[in-house]
Fold this sequence. Notes:
Blueprint: E1 40-47, E2 50-60, E3 63-77, E4 80-95, E5 103-109, E6 119-129, E7 141-149, E8 160-161, E9 186-196, E10 201-207, H1 213-216, E11 228-237, E12 240-247, E13 251-260, H2 300-313, E14 317-324, E15 328-335, H3 341-355, E16 362-369, E17 372-373, E18 376-380, H4 381-387, H5 393-399, E19 402-404, E20 415-416, E21 423-436, E22 443-456, E23 461-473, E24 500-511, E25 517-525, E26 530-539, E27 546-558, E28 566-583, E29 586-594, E30 600-609, E31 615-623, H6 627-630, E32 636-644, H7 645-649, E33 656-661, H8 678-683, H9 687-692
Parallel strand pairs: 15-16
Antiparallel strand pairs: 1-2, 1-13, 2-3, 3-4, 4-5, 5-6, 6-7, 7-9, 8-9, 9-10, 10-11, 11-12, 12-13, 14-15, 14-20, 16-17, 16-18, 18-19, 21-22, 22-23, 23-24, 24-25, 25-26, 26-27, 27-28, 28-29, 29-30, 30-31, 31-32, 32-33
Helix pairs in contact: 2-3
Amino acid sequence: MAQDTAAPSFDPPAAASLNFYGLPGLMDMPSAEMMPDGQFSMAAATFAGQTRYTLAFQATPWLMASFRYGAIRDLNLFGFDTYYDRNFDVRFRLMKERGAWPELTLGLQDLAGTGIYSGEYIVATKRFRTAPLGTARGDGQLKLTAGLGWGRLGSNGSIGSTGSRPAFNTGDTGGELSYDQWFRGPVAPFAGIEWQANDRLGFKLEYSSDAYVLETRDSSVFERKSSVNFGVEYQATPRTRLGAYYMYGSSFGLGAQIQLNPKYPVRRLGIPAPQPVAARPDRTSRPQAWDTGWAASAEATPRLRDQLEPVLLTEGLVLESLAVEADRAELRYRNTRYRNPAVAMGRAARALARVMPASVETFRLVPVANGMGLSEVTLRRSDLEALEFDPQATDALRAVTGIGEAAPRIPAGAATGRDLYPDFSWSVAPYFSPAYFDPDQPFRIDVGADLNASYRPAPGWLFSGTLRQRVAGNVKGGKTSGSALPPVRTDQVLFAQEDTTLNNLYAAYYWRPGRDLYARVTAGYFESAYGGLSSELLWKPVSSRLALGLEANYARKRDYDQRLGFQDYGIVTGHASAYMDLGRGFHAQVDAGRYLAGDWGATFGLDRVFDNGWSVGGFFTLTDVSAEEFGEGSFDKGIRFSIPLEWFLGQPSQRSIGTTIRPIQRDGGARVHVPGRLYGQVRAAHGKALDDGWPGVWE
Length: 699
């Protein structure tokens, strides 16, 4: 049965409310609560000329990380009328709430850089229900919070000290861990109460241990008259919460927060129900249907190919090749619709069951990307027939299904798809190009349209290009940044001066040079700033969680107008890469080699990837460039996320939206962006990814 696309959205579980730092808490003070596992939040809060924007992610049930961008007007620090600060936080749950014991959490706030917001804390929270169980979500819940704070959180009402600590780091570069300051200096208590009166309305009251020393000197930002803050919050939707507050006896504040959970999509995914598995006739009553004489005809395979192609197309699958023998068939296909490869695989198997003669018992299914066979899934037709309505169908089918290496080439005698090559396609799509943290305007963005065209003359070959037309935006008004290194990225604003540009234009060839090996060569204009020649080799066994790659590039800097010309700067770069699926959705990656500015080093990344395509992660790069040469930020680092469009739209799609946010873009640790790198497209159809999405084989 097709899923009802008009069904109501899935409501996420009740989550902790967030404080002005975008973390579970009261107003300024933290609580010990964690968000639900996998939760992603965006929060904005302002009071007395201070504004904070926070992205936070519950990476595991016990670990939460966040990135914040704050602005303070009239602080007059470092010569700025409005002081902007970027900082990272982490929180660790030490103990879950159980029985009479509260939840206990340790947190590090603004753990690197100038440390203007830096503080550490240990906090406990205990929940009490003041209404009977079974009432509306959140009704009658009372939360009591108490803790000890250091740094900012130890500056008011200190009860002792654990050593000396500067107010903030006055170094020029920032960005380095301030571990020598953690849990040092005055320590002060804080406390608060939160009452969720019903499923919409909540009230908060706190005693703050933050003296706001910098902000209140000479009353330059605001006047702190009290240590007590209180507020009221309204749960506008299951994902959105709004609040109004009275802060420090002198100022009113406002806050808004959005919490998204990958496990609870905005819209129910509407996939038309698959055709039932076509049962074969009884062998005893109709033995002629099982005759294998048809296989001797030279026209058998092309005829079956012609019957199968339209069946696959209705499912969003493209037939690349079909090889048929009396008792087995191998189908190579391209998935153009489904993010989960197991969904495509299940529908390809059903299509074969509808078309193949009764004697064909074994199906070999080979998903293909850019002409490369990625894996080979072998299953028996009789298992499909027997298990379709079995209560344990998912596990039972996987137990009798083999996943192995795909042959590098199509079998001899296979029939290829009709009119498959040459293939020309084009599309028009909106684009959004953000730029972050310009001191004059922290967020800039260009919007417009991309005209993309692709031409595939033969398997493995791709010619592609994108013309970009800016419709509106202000990125070109940003500032360039001085650098002690070659300006390989700090001049990015100069590439945003023209409205009509050639964003990319390249030719690529993909092939399988041997067992467990995948290869790519790309030449042309890779991205807005660089073109050249790129080659890549990836070793990735189907059943292995480990993959190893080598990439070598000659990158030449493009003219700022992004036409066909190049500047004088050119460099050979390359990396050796290791990729590891750590399980439970966590993926680690290490890339070691030479970067665009000529520096040598390594990039370390960790991402959490959900079954539905959501991805959230972070990275940092260390090279032989010193912190002083690198400049502000000391080293390259950032966070990245990607959200599948089908999570919002409720319709199958392989496209995603996302971005990478760096505290500051410098030249050290910069890489060229080459389209079509191998690991992502190869991993998606290998053993671990297929196992994770295997329930989709029946969808």
